[in-house]
Amino acid sequence: MKRNDVRNIAIIAHVDHGKTTLVDAMLKQAKVFRENQQVMVRVMDSNDLERERGITILSKNTAISLPHPDTRELIKINIVDTPGHADFGGEVERVMNMVDGVLLLVDAAEGPMPQTRFVLKKALEMGHRAVVVINKMDRRDADPDRALNMTFDLFIELGATEEQADFPVVYANGIEGRAGLTSDLEGNLEPLFKTIIEKVPAPDVRPDEPLQMLVANLGYDEYKGVTAVGRIFAGSMKVGQRICRMGLDGQVYNDQIRYLYVYQGLERKEVEEAQAGDIVCVAGLESVAIGETLADAENPISLPPIHVEEPTVRMTFAVNTSPFAGREGKWSTSRKLRERLFSELRNNVALRVEETDSADTFIVSGRGELHLAILIETMRREGYEFQVSKPEAIFIKGDDGEYLEPYEEVHIETSNDTVGVVVEMLGVRKGVMLDMVNNPDNTVHVTYRVPTRGLLGFRYQFLTATRGMGVMNTIFAGYDKLAPQISSRSTGSIVAWETGDSSTYGLKNAEERGTLFIGAGVPVYEGMVVGETQRGEDLAVNVCKKKHLTNMRQANKDIEVRLTPPRLMSLDEAIEYLAEDELLEVTPLNFRIRKKILNTEERGKTEKRTKELMSE
Questions:
Q1: Where would you find this protein in the cell (predicted)?
Q2: 464 known member of a binding site
């Protein structure tokens, strides 16, 4: 039967198309906040990293209550805000199990983008109906008709059914909180609310059958332990009820509902009972995992588990072995590192962690460099100290035993002046051009198919080449035969050959050979990378060298030496910079690039042996 007093929707879109901003406006107009309440912008991006980077990383739940336009009966709308970045596609895949329909946001100027394709494909595969919202109608270059036509073409291309392709359309300006059924917007979001209530299907529920709830998300409450978020598909749930937890390993565990919440606005409201069709949060369960079913104790029936696409990129996480190990971190042992990585698997469903022959080294696989970089930054802020290797693509074996590698479809918008450089850079990385279109605003849109291996370390080189004006989006395009050898870095590293504090005199000598990453007075150790040289080979320099003082001066220039300010890297840039023989030492206070072999003499011998083997 249908439960007409509830609607469950997810808001999906490409990154930066205005999902979280639209949710802000929906919450305000549904009177979730007091009239005089101070509310931050993008209130759903509550995580520090989300606010700093301006992107949504984790899916989050909220709910509003609105009167039905005809009956005036209150309808509860459960809303799930999802990430738009391809690296966090696992968050989108798992919440699709909780909802019955989606709001697909499309930028009125840009139209559907690569990630729009990914999230819409997942929604259509689940059989969900979509309400298309042409957002950002206030943009000067907005062309809603073109955006709508491109969106319809995308639905057909992705194999939408006739019912799915006959989607309702709402035009909106999320920042101003205005919407309309035509491009002439009204003064509020009433047309959007009405379309959701009338066009998004009410949930199908089985209230008289045994309890079934699928766990789609996990959290943690300081007082009540692990929290499990999911949707009740059948039966009802009460506080104190005995249940069975159907584990992913096939085992059945007995448990009890200790705390039960539903979402109302930004708050979790404690309730005694919830019905089929509700999205609820259960606290106090032991060892619960995403994808498990909470079922009736007398008649446990499992729901299909959540499946997400496999990761394509991996890195090694290991205990810090640098001479500065243990100085800055709170947690630095292999036991703590192992505990933290495996605990991450509980709510990061797209991540994989494998143990290796070495007890202090782990292989961590994810959807992309950003996916792994967010994990590294989160652990660093929690006080962990460790070292990571250069990201590498994950190869798989095909049906005929031949190795295959992942490929990405890359969409780039850049100026006419820099498109030649971009084409040359992607050619070196074994990219194949699929399309090139000149846009009306004198920019060029190029589409490439590139091995994932070729894109590792590419983003910041691309931004430098396009003077920060280029826009790049990628989407996973499947596996194919191995591409030829790809050289990702043409520069070498300037490496410290002595432990101590860097000096202005020593750095001046190094500065003449390339770009420095550190300034004077910074503690360094032998084997630490302190700069980049345009030569293809590494260069060992004594940056701790001090000038011998005399009481004679030849000229004033001997008294004062000026250094160019060093190039300060972000964590993402440092990860992209890494070469095959380098590691990134990560601590709560610093991250340092270093060579795997720290001893200069030993490293030289190893490089010589490698060259001899290559020549043979």
A1: Cytoplasm
A2: no
Q: Residue 312 and residue 407: Cα distance in Å, rounded?
A: 9
Q: How confident is the model at residue 86 (pLDDT cuts 50, 70, 90)?
A: low
Predicted pLDDT of residue 119: 82
Answer for the pair 538, 580: CB distance below 8 angstroms, yes or no: no
Looking at residue 264, its pLDDT comes to 85
* 466 known ligand binder: no
User: Is residue 16 marked as binding?
Assistant: yes
The answer to whether 76 is a known ligand-binding residue is no
249 appears as a binding residue in the annotation: no
- Local confidence band at 43 (pLDDT 50, 70, 90 cut-offs): low
Handedness of CA 428, 429, 430, 436 (dihedral sign): negative
Q: How far is CA 317 from the centre of its chain?
A: 18
Three-state secondary-structure class, residue 50: helix
Q: Which residues are CB-neighbours of 82 under 8 A, at least 6 positions away?
A: 10, 11, 12, 19, 56, 59, 91, 92, 95, 119
pLDDT (0 to 100) of residue 475: 83
What is the rounded distance in angstroms from the CA atom of residue 49 to the CA atom of residue 85?
Answer: 14
| CA–CA distances in Å: residue 81 to residues 59, 307, 553 | 6, 20, 67
Do the domains at 397-481 and 492-568 have one common CATH topology?
Answer: no
Does CATH place domain 492-568 in 2.70.150.10? no
So where are the chain's domains? 6-199, 212-296, 397-481, 492-568
pLDDT at 184 over 60: yes
Q: How far is CA 167 from CA 101, 102, 152, 170, 185, in A?
A: 11, 11, 9, 10, 19
Residue 56, pLDDT score: 66
* Residue pLDDT, tens place only, 383-392: 999 999 999 9
- pTM reported for the whole predicted model: 0.81
Q: Tokens 């968050």, residue?
A: 91
Reported confidence tier of residue 272, pLDDT bands at 50, 70, 90: very high
Domain with residues 6-199, CATH architecture:
3-Layer(aba) Sandwich (3.40)
Six-digit token string for 234: 């059948």
Partners of 480 in the β-ladder = 405
Q: Is 465 a residue whose pLDDT tops 70?
A: yes
CB 303 within 8 A of CB 233: yes
Tell me the β-bridge partners of 219: 227
Check whether 20 is labelled as a binding-site residue: yes
Helix 190-199 crosses helix 19-29 at what angle (to 10 degrees)?
100
Q: What CATH number labels 397-481?
A: 3.30.70.240
CB–CB of 232/296 below 8 Å?
Answer: no
Alpha-carbon Rg of the chain, whole angstroms?
Answer: 27
**Section 243-251 average pLDDT:** 86
The strand order across the sheet containing 539-541 reads: 514-516, 529-533, 492-496, 539-541
Task: State whether the Cα torsion 462-463-464-467 is positive or negative.
Answer: positive
Q: pLDDT averaged over the chain?
A: 86
What angle do the packed helices 114-125 and 144-157 form, to 10 degrees? Answer: 50
Query: 212-296 falls under which CATH superfamily?
Result: Translation factors (2.40.30.10)
Percent of the chain with pLDDT over 90: 37
Residue of higher predicted confidence among 614 and 104: 104
